[in-house]
Amino acid sequence: MVRTQIQLTEEQAARLRRLAAHRGVSMAEIVREAVERYMQQAGAADEGELDARALAVIGRFASGQRNVSVEHDLHLDEAFSS
Asked: Could you tell me which residue ranges the Ribbon-helix-helix protein CopG domain spans (predicted)?
């Protein structure tokens, strides 16, 4: 596990302490559970999943440009400056 610090409001800290005491677990456990739930709801993907999704779209779209792999910086510059 990685140790980290967070800042909570007084009210958040008090509520977290009460919940942890009520459940008989540490405040850290409550925070870990909350972070995990948030990540699942937000659709946060691990790096392997992101890589797989990126690889899955290769070749699925056509830009009409023939030199994108070589001149990608030029094409991005043109796209963002328009």
From this structure: 2-38
